[in-house]
Amino acid sequence: MEQRRCLTWRTRRIWIVYILVLVLVWKTALGQFRYSISEENTEGTAVGNIAKDLGLDKATLKERGYRIVSGSAEPPFRVNTDNGILYVNRKIDREEVCDRNKMCVIDLKTVLENPLEIHYVAVEILDINDHSPVFPEKEKRLEISESALPGARFQLQAARDPDVGQFAIQQYKLSHNEYFRVEVKDRGKDQKIPFLVLQKQLDRETNEKHKLRLTAVDGGKPAKSGDIEITVDVLDINDNSPVFTKELYSATLKENIPTGTVVIQVNATDLDQGANGEIIYSFGNEVDPKIMEIFSIDANTGEIHVTGKLDFEKSTSYEIDIQASDKAQVPLKTGKSVVITVADVNDNAPEIEVTSFSSSIKEDSKIGTTVALISVTDLDSGINGKVICAIKQGVPFTLSPSLQENMYAIVTISQLDREITSQYDVTIIAKDSGEPPHLTEKTISVVISDVNDNSPEFSTSPYTFYITENNSPGASVFAVKASDRDENDCARVSYHIIRDGSEDNKISSFLNINSDNGEILALKSFDFETLKTFQFQVVASDSGTPSLSNNVTVNVFILDQNDNAPVILYPLSSNGSAQGVEEIPRNVNAGHLVTKVRAYDADIGYNGWLLFSLQEVTDHSLFSLDRYTGQIRTLRSFTETDEAEHKLLILVKDNGNVSLSATATVIVKLVEPKEAFAASDVKSAAKDDEDSNVIFYLMITLGAVSVLFLVSIVVLIAMQCSKSTDYTSKYLPETNYDGTLFVTHITNQESELVLCNNCNDTESIGLVLPQGSHFTYF
Predict the structure, then answer these.
(1) Could you give the percent of the chain with pLDDT greater than 90?
(2) Cis before residue 546, ω within 30 degrees of 0?
(3) Where are the transmembrane segments (predicted)?
(4) What CA–CA distance (Å, rounded) separates 658 from 758?
(5) Beta partners for residue 171, in sequence order
(6) Residue 238 to residues 268, 278, 622, 658: CA-CA distances in angstroms?
(7) DSSP 3-state assignment of 690?
(8) Cα–Cα distance for residue pair 635/513, rounded to 1 Å
């Protein structure tokens, strides 16, 4: 083996020597010189000594006009005839001159004159490593499916280096990675084609892009290189199911949140690409339809929205199954649960329920008596469901809590009185502790039932009634009225008159009372002149058990009627007729008192007030009659022509509504003076007796009237001092009551006392009572 190697090396050396000899012989024969110079030398760089190589001295070279023959272009070289050296005329780029040829020779044609000689000079341009490898693109993008198997080859574009030989591209290098390597295929002529070879199967979901750097390196020293960035996009296949970004999705919502509110957004990712990685969201197949009425899910965004009403009291939480699916032809799905917790808000007012209720309670119930049982509920929870209860003030009830929570008893806290308040509206207030708080009110009506704890009460005590005499027997004369503050049977009042048989109550035997309405009937006709006043007692009893009663004193005054005609006291003849004879002297002067007619009326007041008038007279010019006193006087002196006897008919009438009257006849005789005196002495004795009786009756009447007048004045003053605005009828019983009424007419400025006989007659002494005035009877 070693002998063979030595033989081969010797053979090679022989051939090299042989070739060199042939070249030298060829050059000499053709008269051609060959030089070599590296590219990119600067101008003026010496290439070779032509004078020396031609065997000419420097002077001959100049004399014979040695020059380079060139075209229009400027030659890359020049000869200095002074020294015979060939110089670089301009900078030479081998790649520009010879492109990628392995040999780059510039042939020069030179001429010597006298004699003419042509010499060819060949200058070989030697390559230097002045260029780096360059890829056609700075970045290359490849698409490789993740289903590609290891060993797959992908051709890459080769880099280009203008240099040749050892300065051309010698190798390719690939940045370190675990998936790819580079292989180079040599196509000759300095063409090396790189291939990207897959070493490990790709997974787009692990790394969807691979960034690689391919470097082309030439053979220079130092070597130059060029890079290209290779991006490998891994094409997807549907080999991944959607994956949710969270293990647990949960949200808390307040109840009554508005519809459309986003509850939560679920998010799933699919490592695949395109339709394989596009995800749509939906509810699971087993989701309750009721839940789907409350919530919805956006298929594209995964947002879960509120579409119905959330109510904590119905459900405190929801667990919803959702699924994410890709859009591949055979989609892959993944499920997940979303837990939605509903937070309570104070959206429920407390509810008050009356579980037991006595609609009525006796007014004599003890304090602490239970009226009703109530329960209070609030559907909210926590502090929102904590309820505080109370009763509005102003009622005799309170709430008493029971052992069970939110149960209360309504009990009395004070004594009840139906007569003061017969029914109470008890308002129960329930207020929760939420924010803002809710308040509920419930009103129940508690009726206070009656017990017989009140006696009948008369409207007036004592009663005072006035009855006109000559009333019709059996007719109702007045009525008493009692009321009982109790109700039903306890308020049903019956009346009766106390009849004890005493002397004072004998008159009550002539009275009867209606037990139902208190109407009193007189069984006889009363006579003022016989009976002026009396009293009795009426008892009012209720129908309760036990029965309660009350009594009242009734004072009755008999009012006078004009039922007595005037009685003539004078003149009175012996046979009882009202006729008398008066003798007067003929020589009396005008104004002489002839006589006085005296009369009496058993009635009182206006009924007993008498007026006198002349009904008949023989000569109206002789006598006058005083209307009020009954005095007859002469109007003028008598003359001789006047008759000796004159008849006077006198009418005496009272002032009753229906006036009664009587007449008297007085015959006046004119006598001579002596006779007149004698007759007057006889009559004076009789007249004195009559006058004494009349004066006695008048004194009694005047005394009674004076006493009543004084009492009326005292009562009037007392009423004015009390400053009362309500003047009610008050009657003063008087043992000596004679039927005369004094009416005090009270106005805002003054009081006026007038005398009347019948208070229904407003014509008494011309008095007219204004409408709306107040008056009090005495």
Answers:
(1) 20
(2) yes
(3) 694-719
(4) 12
(5) 217
(6) 15, 11, 162, 135
(7) helix
(8) 63
Joined together, the tokens standing for residue 404 give: 């069970």
Work out the pLDDT band at 224, boundaries 50, 70, 90: confident
**Strands 333-343, 249-254: pairing kind:** parallel
Phi, psi of 394 (to 5 degrees): 100, 5
Nearest to 378 by CA among 344, 340, 427, 425: 344
For residue 282, give the nearest of 345, 233, 326 by alpha carbon. Answer: 326
- Regarding pTM above 0.70, the answer is no
CA–chain centroid gap for 304, Å, is 33
Give 640: exposed, middle or buried? Use CB within 10 Å, 0-12, 13-18, 19+: exposed
- Give per-residue pLDDT as tens, 374-394: 899 888 888 888 888 999 888
d(CA 174, CA 155): 14
Nearest residue to 668 (alpha-carbon basis) of 639, 644, 684, 640: 644
Reading the block at residue 586, the tokens are: 């003929």
- What is the set of domains in the chain, with CATH numbers? 30-126 (2.60.40.60), 139-235 (2.60.40.60), 243-343 (2.60.40.60), 351-448 (2.60.40.60), 457-559 (2.60.40.60), 567-671 (2.60.40.60)
**Are 510 and 471 spatial neighbours (Cβ–Cβ below 8 Å)?**
no
What tens digit of pLDDT does each residue of 53-75 get? 888 787 777 778 888 887 767 78
What is the Rg, in whole angstroms, of the alpha carbon atoms belonging to the chain? 79
Q: Which two tokens stand for residue 270?
A: 């699919």
Encode pLDDT of 84-129 as tens digits.
888 888 888 777 777 767 788 888 888 888 888 888 888 888 877 7
CA–chain centroid gap for 727, Å, is: 54
Residue appearing with tokens 């341009």: 125
Closest Cα to residue 358, out of 412, 401, 400? 412
Strand 511-513 and strand 519-522: the pairing is antiparallel
